[in-house]
Amino acid sequence: IGGQLSVVMCPMGAGLVVLVVIARRGAESSAAYYTAAAITATLVAFASNIAGAFTAEAAARPHDEEALLRRSAAHAARLLVPAALGTALLAPWIMAVFGDSYRADGGTLLRVLALGAIPQALIALGVGVARLHRRMVLVNVLFGAVAVGPILGATLIDESTGLERIGYFTAAGQ
Question: Which of 26, 56, 76, 95 has its CB 3.0 to 4.6 Å from that of 103, i.e. a possible disulfide?
Fold first, then answer.
């Protein structure tokens, strides 16, 4: 059950955040949040896929675990860091493609979430190591922390606060 619980936690957290943003800020802000989160999800997928490959490869070659981990971290740095920095730099213009309100509500949020994808790579590799060693409690704690950050941030927004607050709590959870 340990592995399945961790797979459910993150998408559930993301779905709850959309609902909380709708309740606190309305549909337009929720759309901006969802768009920024979806764009960031592609960055986080880099890290998750690299970590998954590491876990599979290290399970087949446990004596090479340390070297494989270093190589995976280097791959993440080469792929994810430039993509995250580029997304953060261009965030307001990326969000403007969807409209002025998206840029206003989601430009800074996308910037914060994109930068937060970088430490997420470390979490993903940590989860990979924990899975490799069957430390499912640690896996669930890590995924729980990642899921709680955005939910907490969403509950603390109102009409006068920006959506970037969710991004700050998301990054803190990572």
Answer: 95
